[in-house]
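# nightly structure sweep
# worker-07 picked up a monomer target from the shared queue
# config: single-sequence mode, recycle default, output format = structure tokens
# input follows
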Amino acid sequence: MITRPHVRFWVAAVMLGAVCTGCNTTKLAADQPSAPSSASAPRYGAPSAPPQLAATNPPASAVHEQQKEALVPSIQKTEPSEAPKSPPAASADKKVETSSDTKPPESKPGVAAVEAYTAKKPSLMGIRLTDTRTAVKKKFNDPVSEFEMDDEQDSVTVCEYEGFSVGFNASGTVEFIEITSKDVNPGLNGLRLGQKVKDAESALGKPDTNTTYAMHYKADGTILKLDIDPKTESIQSIKLFAGSK
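# output follows
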């Protein structure tokens, strides 16, 4: 086959044009940025958009809890403070002690109730001068201590009890009774050691003998002697003994 020279020239020109066109297309494709593969892949160098969250309504229980929490502080603020409690009122039947209600101290435990002093039956601690040692022991049990006291006429055994003492002669009968503590009730209508002269007069009446230092009450062959402190006019000792003493 014989090819003409001008035909070959046109064929070469067409091929050259096709090659040039393909090169330009490739260059444009390289220069043009490719579209993002997905909406979640941002372009390099550009700030990423925050992901879109699906709008959902919270459950009713969550809303209720939020409303409850919001109300708690306001309730606590408006709640009134607790008023201070007043002390309980004293019982109506509880007597309030006043100075006028003050009583002498109670008698020592173990001391029996004593017979009151009278002019017909003079006694101290319920003991009379005619009582025997056996009778006193039966009433007050054994003494705390005892000792012998020499007397010009006869020896005397002194038995000491809590708050008083008793002297017995050789025949075993009572020689004297002496009060040694204000804690015991000697049986003188409420009169005790430490009280005043006016208290003695209120309890026993006017004495048979009254000096600055002593008061004497005589009854049935006995003498009840109250020794007085002249400065305070208080009773310092109380003693019952036979009239000859």
